[in-house]
Amino acid sequence: MHLFYTPDITHDIYTLNEEESKHCTRVLRLSHGDTVYLIDGVGGMYTAIIQEAHQKRCQLQIIEKQVEYGKLPYVSHIAVAPTKNLDRMEWFVEKAVEIGVSEITFLLCEHSERRNLRLDRLEKIAVSAMKQSKKGYLPLLNDMTPFHRFIQKAIPENTFIAHLEDDATKSIKDYYKHGEPHCILIGPEGDFSTGEIAAAYQAGVRPVTLGQSRLRTETAALVACHTLNVLHDIFAPL
Questions:
Q1: What's the rounded Cα separation, in Å, for the pair 209 and 192?
Q2: How confident is the model at residue 238 (pLDDT cuts 50, 70, 90)?
C-alpha cells in the first residue's frame, strides 16, 4: 500500500505537493494508472488513481473514500516535559503514534532542561509514523505549555501524575474507566518539583505508579501510552 498524507483534500481531483510527487514518481516509480492511498489525518482514507505522473505535480483521481478510518476507540493524552536530548522526544513521538495516542502536550516545568522545541520537526515525525503504521488520525501535538497553566485546565477525575515520590501506590489500571479519556503527566529528567506535585494534588490530580523501575522520561511516557492502549483491550466489552 502506497500511502500519502494529504490534509487539504477538497475535490475528487487532487495534486500531490512537490515533495510527495517526487517520492511517488521517482522513488516509488509509480506511473499513470497505478493505485495509491491518501490519508487526511482526520479519519479520511482515499483510494486514488494516478492520472498524470508528473515529478512536481502528480495528479490523482479519487475513486473511493472511507470515513473514520483507523479511529481509536479510546482517548489517550500524554503530557510530558521534553528531555534535554531532543532525539529522545522524537523517538517517543514516533513510537507513541505507532502504538496509538490521541494527543501529546509538551510541558514546561521548573526542572525542565529544555525550554523550547521545534514543533514542526516533531509534527513531521508524527506524520511519518502515522503513514508507516497506517493510522487514519494524526495526533494533536501541543507546543510547550507551562505546567501550572496546564494543571488549571486539567479534568481532575481523568488526569494522573507519575512522579518519583513514594506516595503513589496505585497504578493506572486502578483508576481506568473504559470509554473515558485519560491524561498522564510525565515530568522532566529532574522530576516534577514539590510545588508542582502539590499544585497537581490541589487541583484533584491523583498520583500513579508506572512500576518499580526508575524510568527515563521518554520511557515513562511510552509506558503510560502503551498501558492505556492495553487497558482498553482488557476492559473492552466482548
A1: 14
A2: low
Q: Is residue 109 over pLDDT 70?
A: yes
pTM (predicted TM-score): 0.92
d(CA 121, CA 78): 18
Give the N- to C-terminal CA distance of the chain in Å, as an integer: 31
For the cut 70, the answer to whether the pLDDT of residue 110 exceeds it is yes
Q: What are the strands of the beta sheet with 103-108, ordered from one edge?
A: 140-146, 103-108, 76-80, 182-186, 159-162, 206-207
What integer is the mean pLDDT of 173-202?
94
Assigned C-alpha cell, 20: 510527495
> Beta-carbon neighbour count of residue 182 at 10 Å?
24
Checking if the pLDDT of 11 tops 80, the result is: yes
Residues 6+ apart with CB under 8 A from 192: 109, 110, 111, 147, 161, 163, 185, 200
| Residue 108 reports pLDDT greater than 90 | yes
